[in-house]
Write a structure and sequence with these properties.
Elements lengths: L6 E5 L3 H12 L3 E6 L12 E4 L5 H10 L2 E4 L6 H8 L8 H7 L2 H10 L7 E4 L2 H11 L3 E5 L9 E4 L5 H7 L5 E5 L5 E9 L5 E3 L3 E6 L2 E7 L6 H17 L4 E10 L2 E8 L9 H4 L4 H9 L13 E8 L15 E5 L10 E9 L1
Parallel strand pairs: 1-2, 1-4, 2-3
Antiparallel strand pairs: 5-8, 6-7, 6-8, 9-10, 9-11, 9-13, 11-12, 12-15, 13-14, 15-17, 16-17
Helix pairs in contact: 1-10
The chain binds adenosine monophosphate.
Length: 354
Amino acid sequence: MIPPGGTIGILGGGQLGRMLAIAAAQLGYRTHVFAPEAEQPAADVASRATRARYDDEGALRAFAAAVDVVTCEFENVPAACLALLEALVPVRPGARAFAVAQDRLIEKQFVETLGGTPAPYAAVDDMASLERAIDRLGLPAVLKTRRFGYDGKGQVRLDARSRAATALADLGGANLVLERLVPFTSEFSIIVGRGVDGAEAHYPAIANRHEDGILAESLAPASRLQAAHVEGATALVIRIANALDYVGILACEFFETDAGVIFNEMAPRVHNSGHWTIEGAETSQFEQHIRAIAGLPLGSPAMQTPVAIMRNILGDAVSGAHALLADPHAHLHLYGKREAAAGRKMGHVTILRA
Ligand code: AMP
């Protein structure tokens, strides 16, 4: 257990780290953010910040010596960085969860061993394997990079065989996976917290709407889903967490189809679709994550209101964001980013409904 006054190290300087640092402060912890970027929304609210690269061994050793536990607010943390830190200080969740989540192929195979069903897929490493994958899976399909994809980046929808060579070249030609396009009726996520002692607490299923591959809106609870689908998906996420001896918040995204539930991907961290929990749940995903990694008991994930809606504020929309406060039930979160590039997550608003 990390005693009050202890220090939580956060790898990554984005908005997820910012909201983790705020939750940590409420529980009496200091935070130390480690990230290479010039602009760090998390550092604005942290006790300490180190600006260094994830391969700067000296800086990582000094960071490990200054903190009681390390957690990550983004998933593409280099494996060598996690390995170095794990030898010096508890890293929660641990490197294995990242190894699985960072590679779409390994992730799908891992989830299958636990009884989950990903979209039909095939590994693609050249034109011949892409041709074979198309023969087997059919079109339309989605070609994705195995690693480093996010917010719809690193993926191309493939509707015609004549576009295959271009799609392959656009994504680097190797280390790819082809997935059959899933005719989903809705997208949803399941967020689970797991403690050092193996206790788990899960939030209600969340319905998600994406625009251009980026999350636009989340609705909790996802009341239109079939109850059996929610139960099955929740049980799968708990099995994933147990299999990884996971500590912290784990989020998984799913597609609901007429034929059942398809596993899409996992995130070994707090998740955008869980931002509504700050006001909408008894214990927010950020507080739950801090409780878990600090060895404290988990809090109740129950909802505070019947319905919570979260909308992301992207790019230029941030300039008009204060107008959202005309609704007294709206809770605005802005991340303090200076450049409002198109599609960039600048903030979010949560609206609670009776
Ligand atoms: P991902 O980064 O894999 O979560 O993909 C981003 C978004 O693209 C998803 O949330 C879906 O809306 C869409 N998408 C990705 N893969 C598929 C698929 N196999 N079938 C249908 N839609 C997909």
